[in-house]
Amino acid sequence: MISFQDVGLRYGAGPEILKNLNFQVDPGSFHFLTGPSGSGKTSLLRLLLLSMRPTSGRMEMFGKNTRELSKAEMMAMRQHIGIVFQEFRLLDHLTTFENVALPLVVRGEPESAYRSNVEELLEWVGLGHQMNVRPELLSGGEKQRAAIARAVIAKPDLLLADEPTGNVDPELSERLLHLFVELNRMGTTIILATHELQMLDKFRFPRLQLSDGGVNVTA
Predict the structure, then answer these.
(1) For residue 195, what pLDDT is reported?
(2) Is the dihedral of CA 52, 47, 66, 62 positive or negative?
(3) For residues 101 and 118, is the Cβ–Cβ distance under 8 A?
(4) What is the pTM of this model?
(5) What average pLDDT does the structure give for the chain?
(6) In a domain, 172, yes or no
(7) Is there a domain that residue 150 lies in?
(8) Cα dist from 176 to 15, 62, 72, 132, 171, whole Å
(9) Structural domains in the chain (count)
(10) pLDDT digits over 58-94, tens only?
(11) Is the pLDDT of residue 158 over 80?
């Protein structure tokens, strides 16, 4: 699904933030993305989200060289990628249902085609009773579950998560991780950035460990 060959990234004329990255991610796998603050985790996620292109090397996603993609092809590929941000990014004027359904609305699907799927997913993540309320009435954990539901409602092949448990307590953090594990069992490839050592010890998935702009892959 993902192949990096000597990939580097720099902003403008500055030094390389990422350099000589070499790794592969297979379909259906689960990887933690780790590394100290400033090691380039967010920059790597931006590459994977296709919001940036590498400045050197070869980056392939879904079997295609990302440098050769047109804007239209890039947008089409993004339809296969979901993203969960640490800060939720829910729209305050929309209900939980409307926030989760937003990717399908943007895609032009009628509500009659997706209503039952959105309702079923909200029940699955424990938000069926909060379906028609706005974000201001949700707890931090409920907002994060809504953000996760929004990220997966379009059934992405790849799910990227940027510190998704950084704003919740340890108990809820573990519950959310079990949710990601279940999504992975259903076939979604997951790359989850985290700095929580306890989580890394409890959930034994391979790690993409960034340090000094490079990456080590550990089982």
Answers:
(1) 84
(2) negative
(3) yes
(4) 0.88
(5) 91
(6) no
(7) yes
(8) 36, 27, 34, 22, 9
(9) 1
(10) 999 999 999 999 999 998 999 899 998 878 889 999 9
(11) yes
Q: Is residue 146 part of a domain?
A: yes
Residue showing tokens 């350099």: 19
Residue 158, phi then psi, degrees to nearest 5: -130, 130
The C-alpha atoms of residue 172 and residue 72 are separated, in whole angstroms, by 39
Evaluate if residue 103 carries a pLDDT over 80: yes
110 vs 21, 79, 88, 103, 105, CA distance in Å? Answer: 42, 17, 25, 12, 7
* Each residue's pLDDT tens digit, 9-65: 999 888 889 999 999 999 999 999 999 888 889 899 999 999 999 999 999 999 999
Q: Which range marks the domain in which residue 111 is found?
A: 92-154
On whether the CB atoms of residues 44 and 25 are closer than 8 A, the answer is no
The residue behind tokens 């092809």 is 73
Q: Is residue 161 included in any domain, yes or no?
A: no
Tokens of 176: 């959310």
Residue whose token pair is 């424990």? 126
Helix residue spans in the chain (DSSP H) = 41-48, 71-78, 96-106, 111-124, 140-152, 170-185, 197-202
- Tell me the Cα Rg of the chain: 18
